[in-house]
Amino acid sequence: MTNFHFTCDQPDFVIRTVPDGTVFRVNKAKLAAGSVVFRDMFAICDDTDPNLELKPNASNVTEHAGSMMASISQGEMEVPERPEIFGLFLALIHGPTSLLEEIGYPDSDEEESPLEPSTIAVPPPSPKHAVTTTNKESLHLPELIPYPLLSPLCDLLDKYDVTRSYVTTIVDHLKRNAPQHPLQIYSLSHQLTFTNLLPVASYASQFLLSPPLETYTLDEIDQNFPSLRAYHRLTLLHAHRKEKLREILITEQIFPHDYGLCPKHNEGARAIWAAHKTSIEARVTAGIDLPAEMAIVKGSYTGCPTCELACERALAMIQYKVNKIAYTFDRVPGAM
Predict the structure, then answer these.
(1) 19-37 pLDDT, tens per residue?
(2) With contact defined as beta carbons under 8 Å apart, do 27 and 12 qualify?
(3) CB burial class (10 A; 0-12, 13-18, 19+) of residue 146?
(4) How does pLDDT run across 174-230, given as a tens digit for each residue?
């Protein structure tokens, strides 16, 4: 659990979580600006005549609603929420929305530009894949919201109908949790409906290239894939990568069009290269590091500068072609 504590610089309203009784001092105007639910509740109470007697049996208001409206009018209210999650929610709402534009996320209905990797994206995921954060989206939020808190926090965003400018902030935290929790973030991004999180799911998919999908048990599929679309998108990505990787493996030659040909070892060098490719072909998966697998053959050409140079060039070309293969499902035809 996190040691995060929410504080408000200009509080003018009190919210108490039940049943634990944790008190949060908040800014009413910021709550109204960030949440449609809070805005409407405050608007109703502000428009209510303070001298009006709220009768429990009145047809226009229940006893609970009347009590809540009276409480809000007095500057406080209770909510049945976990304090550690609700504190994060309040921090999000109290953050400066003007800084969100500096992060540069696209609108939910716009296509996100592909994230170009520095190297081929193969498991295990490394820190270089993590999204760099400006840490400007909120002066109150922790630098990284831990994954166990993200799912219940997103539930609150939906429950209290948070405006989109605040929802966008969560994208950064979802993406930065993806390298360590790829399947969970992938699943969560497909489940949430209050905004379009397919770009987040697609980003997480690059960390799900291994293990092969056929190794998942039925229980694991039921638990981690909330819909057929979620599973099928990953299936399309794996199938696309395996097809393209096999094409590269089959077509790449050590002496392409006799370029860099070694007159002395021509046939032998080609035979070694072909045999090694054949040994790999049956093991091709979406997450295989093909350049590394092919690089094992380099030792077979030691002692001949011409063959060594040809091998290095062929491996470099394989790396170049592999880097051009889609590594997220948003770059696979038919997956979006």
Answers:
(1) 888 999 999 999 988 899 9
(2) yes
(3) middle
(4) 999 999 999 999 999 999 877 788 999 999 999 999 999 999 999 999 999 999 999
Contact of 113 with 157, CB cutoff 8 Å: no
One-letter amino acid of 299? G
Give pTM, 2 decimals: 0.75
